[in-house]
């Protein structure tokens, strides 16, 4: 429904015309965040129509108790719910006593813009109120990257046809709840509501998790851009505080409010100092002022774009799509806080709960490694190292022992915080992604030091898990892995998922190899680690036996590895036979029907071919692509990007391009008809990979960065930059030529289309 | 732990000596019920130790909202929680101002008895209170079968060593909660608390489900058995009302209270008439008086035993076990209310939720058919007929169409009220049990009229479901049934569960055959039904195609049907290799580990061989028994009885006897270490079947009742009665001879050990 209402533009997401049916979708699409907090693009003023209110604070969640019919041993106690936090953006507006409410007004010339280059959200419109007063409104809002506890709003109203008495009522509201709340569920408890001069504070803490927060605000008013001191009328309710600023405004004069507001949280401050920290934040913000704060916002975003921008010429929608992806990733996670991670919906919705999925390692790590300082990637790995003990405890809950580690499927604090057995107990391939990320980090950055320092212990815990998880099948005379859910979550509790078995084998082999290397080259680390984890060569031999004798289901008839033992028992009708009215099947079909169908949610076997492409011939990759893709419905946001990269590798540029469009504009065009619920943040890194690895053909092999650029016929050209081992390389591709430029760093040898070429800062290589 | 503390006795369950560790187990074992309500054997007086309080009203439940991480289409909205109802049994006792509390007193000569012959529960003990007053206490309590809204308590205290001031504080308490409650969950809302003369009332309704109830009480006091008028001091709290009766009691004198109390419910009365209905019930009870009410209780139980008793000579534990089973079944369900059904924990605990499982059809129906009026069996079938529309809706939620019916796995009102996909979506074999019950009812009672009247519509809905649920596998060139959970709930989402596939085939064949018969013999019913369900011969042909080409997984190597496609992929170590410390595995192992193991919770393939024994040779049955039983951990209460019956059939009487002991004393000896949570009511009917069908060899074939009695070597003899088509037959078996007696009805021809023998009321047949 809301497909195609976003106006193509190189740097902005723009909506023109007001349509109440699109409000919830736009609230997702125009979301803003600064890594520490974020919000859906809810209106500041009261809105009586359908809306999905959402303000989120990084790391603040609620443990929703697991309720199942028959409790089974090992079940996680709770599901971490992403919590809607107290609302500070609210500014109600009354004009001659009448509420400004876009749901009941006549709205003209409505325009909403999310400026990605500069990092702000704005609205302009003309409203005719029920009392026939016509006003024009301009708003601008941003969450500061420089003062990351603070957001700022500039709200200007101009009566057009009459003089009017206008009241701004900026407020803080802690009487919020979650969209997905249950009967009467309450998540926040308010400790205090205070006002001091122009500043207001609500202290509230989450129930159970006891996160303490202070939500704060301070406002300034302007008449015709001139600051005016209005003594506010203050209203305190049980869970809300409002300041009412009233002014008589002549027709055509402007009445403006600047509201500075935000959160201080006890993750960063002592819990009894939240108000004083808030006071300081407000003092900094007000003394800087809206305009100067906005300037530093623009500068901060310019710095981000400097290292991460991708340009696409000749295809505005593709350009808009990729920038939207890069912008949202940076809004969600900036890599500056090693305790945080990348939630699949970022700050744009409640769905999925928790913050950390395998998405981080499998999809996001490459993006952050190539567009930010190497330290950001290391932080993402260290996050898992810091959770190793919890991962071992998690495995123990499932009866594993001897230091076997099973990382949670979803987590906030290292504990499992998802609560469905078919996911948490069975979707164990996540362990593989976490091990692979260690390898991938070294492969990309060349920083081996992480492995003896932290990585090897994680690898050992994971290898132990795979060893224990496999069972020997007399029937197959091989080790099998029973009862898993692969990346394709449309199958549960299957046997011998090819991807999982392959990952298990790879993890063991890589760990064994790494142990040998550490033994040889980092003797003291080796001794420290071996004695810490109590590992000996007998145990390693047993691991190897499992890896060397792993079973992989294979179909002679189709000459392909089978996604799982029972795949061929299904009715193998291709996804193309599904009527449009039946899609997405996860919204149209019962779970029962989906499980029995051959339809694949996302790359599963192909995910393995993507990660381990060098272990297979191009013919093998092609054969598996042609076998599995037709059954794939791509209803996971993580699917199209992998298919785009593989299609590009197979020189199927039309297919690669269409998958690229799907991944890059998944939310903008709402392919999966769920954008109202929030954006698909982690898959946005997959979009980035589609260009860099898919079209650009970037790989790292033997410490050498290589490219083999291709270009969709629809584009005139594209360019991207990557940060590689203290070099910044810019790659520009057109239909006629490819150029390579070294923007930073010393001379570097690249492989370009299989040829070794050296670049330095003085020359632009065309190849 | 609490194994073996129950004293063997032919007619009573007796516990001697007070052990606080056993309180919760005894609360389950000594539970009482009258079909309309029931209670755990909680003490009347205050008890500060560990206890599990439970009072339950038939049909009163709470819909606990389903909470899952990722919602999937078709999920049931709620889980029906068995609700703890307001407590009316409470009588606090103070002696010289000191609470009588068995947890803090010294307790001597404690004896608790559940008299199954007469239907009452008693305790006697001597307590030395903290103030050194010694008292003897005698209590007796029952839930009246004749006035089924009323229970009565006789509580007598005698100070032994001193004169004492004693206060009885009978109360009603609606401030109760569930054991399995979640944070702050509230299920009841109190509407009014009233007292009028000696009567007290609390009106309360359940949240969401809006069941309105009135809990009521009235008490009378006696000094040395002489009625005494004491003006009570009345205390009203927010959710509790207490009457305090105080008397000065000489040493060795007795002070007695009779408390009459219970519930009136808006299932039986207009909701604004609950207090007046309660008043009437109390007037009846008090005018009858405790002793006369107890007399009629004894008579009512004598009538039940008259038709349902089983005697066992020479084995008191076996005798006690079988009577305990028959007693508890009758306490749970009496067949008088077609809206009610047989909850798996009856009125003895909260676990499992809901009231109706496939247990009713698969296990309970034969018991009720043979021990009660034929109408009771018909009521049980009609319960499902009345839910047919809901079953069709339930199937529609899972994308089935055209009148396909999927009965819920668990229900209170026809809707699915369990909430785990692997159960509700996949444990579809329940549909088979419901169809089989129709066949079984006719087979046993000879009452075909139920089928044209109601049964055929149910069969057609079920046949349609199976037809749609099967898919054609090109690989097998057969119809397969993917993604199911069989009776063995230790495997989920498996393919081609043999039992399920067999049931599906049988259901279709039986339905097709029944349609033909109705067409020929009940033409007008046929026309009515066919036009109602819009069925034609083309559709029937398609059903038949599925039934005729159903796939059954088979192992050539083992020469057995496989429980499911992947069974042989498991590590096939027998259950005998499990250490005792690892059992029951459902308490010791994670769900993950259980799913991957070969261990079978309960008869699965063997359940099919039990139901359809005539379709297999004895060698086939034996081979499958020997293959599957070694993997079976019997952690479902429904397992040992089926194994006992099959073992008896295979002439393995030692094994049959040990399974019999396990099923009949499952709760008394707490095999599965969970009796604290409540009793396993529905499996108790399986115990009955173990004797009647297993040892007695009772079958009905071609309208003829047959027996082939066997007897465990441990027993001197046993006898049972069955009600068969208006005949009551008594079968007595000893080590030397078997006798058959017709107690009621006209001459009847039986098959005894394969020989046709006619009995009538005048002769006792020895055969």
UniProtKB/TrEMBL annotation, chains A, B:
Pfam families: Glyco_hydro_65C, Glyco_hydro_65m, Glyco_hydro_65N. It comes from the Bacteria. Residues 698-758 form the Glycoside hydrolase family 65 C-terminal domain. This is Maltose phosphorylase. Signal peptide: none annotated. Belongs to the glycosyl hydrolase 65 family. InterPro entries: 6-hairpin_glycosidase_sf, 6hp_glycosidase-like_sf, Gal_mutarotase_sf_dom, GH65_N, Glyco_hydro_65_C, Glyco_hydro_65_M, Glyco_hydro_65_N, Malt_Pase/Glycosyl_Hdrlase. Residues 323-689 form the Glycoside hydrolase family 65 central catalytic domain. Residues 14-266 form the Glycoside hydrolase family 65 N-terminal domain. It comes from Cellulophaga geojensis KL-A.
